[in-house]
Amino acid sequence: MPVLLLRRLNYRCWFLVLVGFCLTAHLCTAARVVKPPPTTTGLIINGIPYLYLDSWARQHGMECLWDGKNPEIKLRARWGNASLSLDSRNASINGINLWLSYGIRIQNNRPIIAQRDLRNVIEALLFPSKPNPPRPIRTIAIDPGHGGKDPGFMLGARAEKTYNLLLAQEVRELLLAAGFKVVFTRYDDRFVELEDRPQLARRAGADLLVSLHHNCAVNNTEAKGVETYCATPLGTASTNGGGPREKAEPSNKFDDQNILLAYEIHKSLVRSLEMNDRGVRRAGFEVLRKASMPGVLIEAGFMSNLDDAKKVFDHKSRQQLARAIVDGILSYKRTMERGLAPNQK
Fold it and tell me: Are residues 110 and 213 in the same domain?
């Protein structure tokens, strides 16, 4: 074989080796770029599992924005955003206030969040899950709080129980007009035991339970706004205090649906009526704990506050309150029924 031909073959071999080396280096570099963030499992503080918030955000296609100085931390994506604050249980999702079970903390100069708050609040609202298979929402149980010998809050001669029932009647009319079947836990001024209320809803085959109340703070007339409660998830504490709930309740089967229903109704109330946003909250109220369907309890304003009282006591404003509640229920229904054929809804 001529010497010139051998040299050409050697050059080609070296060229191929060099190309292969460059390609391998490129692929390795690319692999490092798309490598998922490091695992965050096993981060336990005071017995509570936590995750690094920035790692979680990247894994879910969100930006985690924090300058390392100010307490505010933002999660941002094209389809939704959240705002959190260091050493605080207060948070917001898409501008609507809510309460976490644990505060945001710092570990290794990075913000961390309790896994339960991620699972039960952030993920449940930003990535809502649906029953599998989806189920239609057709029957709503309305629970007008108090009644009979239990007047609820009193403001002079005005009893909370009266306005709970009046609001329930307005909500009922709008739900019927929207095609729902509606049942009440009480239709008039009678006393109904707390434990009986979710049972009445269950026996009626209700798909949702909505308990209606009003707030009052005679020693603080500046307090105003709307609060929307759902049942406290297992292993977490209620917003208003107390230790973590250790016993599973019927409502815990619907933890994801409970907070989504509360969020949709609360969002509608705050945005439609420009009421002070006191947040979506957790509570161990018996009417919520014992519910065998998704449920919420709404505190639809303070009777003791001048601005809120106009909405509570005025018929036209009460109609607007009812409209906002029903709009929130309809928004929840649309989310839960995606995937159902029209004749299944």
Answer: no
